[in-house]
Amino acid sequence: MSDETITNNEVAMENNTEVTQDTSESNDLSSPEAKAMMESMVAEQLASMKENMNKMSKQRDEAMRKAVELEEGVKAAKLEKLEAEGKTSEALQMKLDEAIARVDALSKVNTTLTRDHSVDKILGDLQFRNGTAKDMAKSQIVNELKQDSEGAWIHATGAGLGEFVQAFAKDEENAFLFKPKQSSGAAAMQQVGMADGSSSQGKSNKPITEMSFEDYLKNNQDPVNEIGF
Question: Where are the alpha helices (DSSP H) in the chain?
Answer without folding.
Answer: 3-27, 32-84, 88-123, 131-142, 161-170, 185-195, 213-219
